[in-house]
Amino acid sequence: MKAERTSTTGLRPAATATDEGSTSSSLGRVTRAYLNVFGAPPSPVSVTVIEQGLGQRVGRGALALVLCWALASASVFIVLAHFILVPSFFIAGPVLAYFRLRAVRVVKDIHGACPRCGVEQDFKPALWGRMIDCPRCKNQLTLTGLDGEGPPASVGDPGGLELWRW
């Protein structure tokens, strides 16, 4: 098995090509996407996406629920703050479990050049949404094109989102 060296994960298994233009490896499916920032042309990046089965999603949802409810139980003993913390953690548990249960695809790795500073690097995937911070120039980047669409038509386009739908 061929392996290539990466800066953050050590050894990565070599990827094999598929018929859709994306590649797959033991870590997940590698596909092409784009990073956008206002005032610069989009930059192509490779994104590793992991498809999760129902069992994995249920496990992640149950873990989020248990952790939030454990924090709510521990917050009971904090004087005065428990009036806010306990209900917040108690409500956040099912909400986080619901979002974890719905997440069929999870982005694990993003590698490419920042459209603003041009440095090729590994980006840390965002926990929520598609906003990513560049560790070098500190700009907030938007990840687009994961669903098969191409780069945005113009530089100022916010990722092809329709803000008003009548």
Task: Lay out the secondary structure.
Layout lengths: L2 E4 L3 E4 L2 E2 L5 E3 L2 E10 L2 E12 L2 H22 L6 H21 L2 E9 L6 E4 L7 E3 L6 E5 L22
Antiparallel strand pairs: 1-2, 3-4, 4-5, 5-6, 5-10, 6-7, 7-8, 9-10
Structure characterization notes:
The protein is α+β, with helices and mostly antiparallel strands and 166 residues long. The chain has 2 domains: 3-7 and 22-52 and 105-144, no CATH class; 54-102. Helices cover 26% and strands 34% of the residues. The protein contains 2 helices and 10 strands, in the order ββββββααββββ. The chain has helices spanning 54-75, 82-102; strands spanning 3-6, 10-13, 16-17, 23-25, 28-37, 40-51, 105-113, 120-123, 131-133, 140-144. Strands 3, 4, 5, 6, 7, 8, 9 and 10 form an 8-stranded antiparallel sheet that branches. A hairpin with a 2-residue loop joins strand 4 (23-25) and strand 5. Helix 1 (54-75) runs antiparallel to helix 2. The protein is globular, with a radius of gyration of 19 Å. The N and C termini lie far apart (53 Å). Mean pLDDT is 77; it is low at 1-21 and 154-166.
**Average of per-residue pLDDT values:** 77
Largest sheet: 8 strands, antiparallel
Instruction: Indicate the overall shape.
Output: globular
Using only C-alpha atoms, the radius of gyration works out to 19 Å
Order of helices and strands: EEEEEEHHEEEE
Q: Report the total helices.
A: 2
Q: How large is the share of residues in beta strands? A: 25-35%
**Stretches where pLDDT falls below 50 for ≥5 residues?**
1-21, 154-166
Q: What is the helix content?
A: 25-40%
- What structural category arises from helix and sheet content? alpha+beta
